[in-house]
Amino acid sequence: MTKFTAAIIQTNTPNNLEEAWAELDGLVRAASNSGAKFIATPEGSNLLERDREKFKQICPRLEDGFAQYSKLARELNIYLLIGSALFQQDEKKAVNRSLFFAPDGELIAHYDKIHLFDVNLGMGQEARESDAYESGTRAILANTAIGKFGLSICYDMRFAHLYRALCQKGAEVLTMPASFTVPTGKAHWEVLLRARAIENSAFVIAPAQGGLHADGRETYGHSMIINPWGEIIAELDGKNTGFALAEINLDEVSAARKKIPAWGLNKNFEIYD
User: Fold this and answer.
1) Among the four residues 106, 128, 210, 257, which has the most C-beta atoms within 10 Å?
2) Is residue 109 in a domain?
């Protein structure tokens, strides 16, 4: 039986690296002091800036590394998932990258967001992440001493086949850090997260950005943890920064999968006109 206390961090990340780090560092330390052994932060934990030219000027370079995250995990003796950090590549587009650290500070796994947010929601709300970011090409499963984690970022959650593939490879916990818009958050956030948990009989850990940001965007918040039966077991509101805790008992995964074994089926169907 594997049990551990997980924390979701909800931030309001600014367009300033030092301020973003100060906010994140304080919240992670507070969650650790409250007993969390696995802590997950939102998408864009190091920087949020909508203006592409400003973003290029302030976004850290990939080669500059991420020593501060490794050091923090080691100091607090925790598993630390930086839901994503944004890095500029030389002569290339930026990357939106999840970073998973062990309690000794080792980088266990990293994942680059596969599905980029290219949408037109109407009323002037349009996004084309592919103009600025290079998409990932590989699904990533992080195998740790406390469980197997399937990594993803935000818009990925709309692509159910990604999570089915991760769970068929052994994932027990699905991480979905996000920076959701308010309109899509109100309409789809909870239902998508609960659906991914139910159809895969897996825990879903979804830390999110929340509130009005320095660059003018507004994010939905409502960070949550969901159990394999689709029940919300921890949640934050839509505005405030903070953290929430939940106990993760991986026996619940196997129990849910025994009750309803549909998660493991992978039949190919031919559709005829």
Assistant:
1) 210
2) yes
pLDDT in the model for residue 116: 85
CATH of the domain at 68: 3.60.110.10
pTM for the structure as a whole: 0.94
Residue 43 and residue 179 in contact, taking contact as beta carbons nearer than 8 Å: yes
Q: What are phi and psi of 70, to 5 degrees?
A: -60, -45
One-letter-per-residue 3-state SS of 209-258: EEEECCCCCEEECCCEEECCCCCEEEECCCCCCEEEEEEEECHHHHHHHH
The angle formed by the CA atoms of residues 49, 31 and 241, to the nearest 5 degrees, is 40
Residue 94 and residue 59: Cα distance in Å, rounded?
9
> How many structural domains are present in the chain?
1
Say if CB 249 and CB 233 are below 8 A apart.
no
Whether residue 62 is contained in a domain is answered as yes
Q: In DSSP terms, which residues pair with 142 in a beta bridge?
A: 149
Q: pLDDT, tens digit, for every residue of 42-71?
A: 999 999 998 989 998 999 998 888 999 999
**Annotation says 154 is catalytic:** yes
| 23, 37, 43, 49: the active-site residue | 43
Q: Tens digits of per-residue pLDDT, 165-186?
A: 999 999 999 999 999 999 999 9
Q: Structural domain of residue 38, as residue ranges?
A: 3-261
Q: How many CA atoms lie within 13 A of 198 on its CB side?
A: 9
Please pick, among 37, 49, 59, 113, the residue that the annotation labels catalytic: 113
Catalytic residue among 23, 37, 49, 154: 154
Q: Is residue 273 a part of any domain in this protein?
A: no
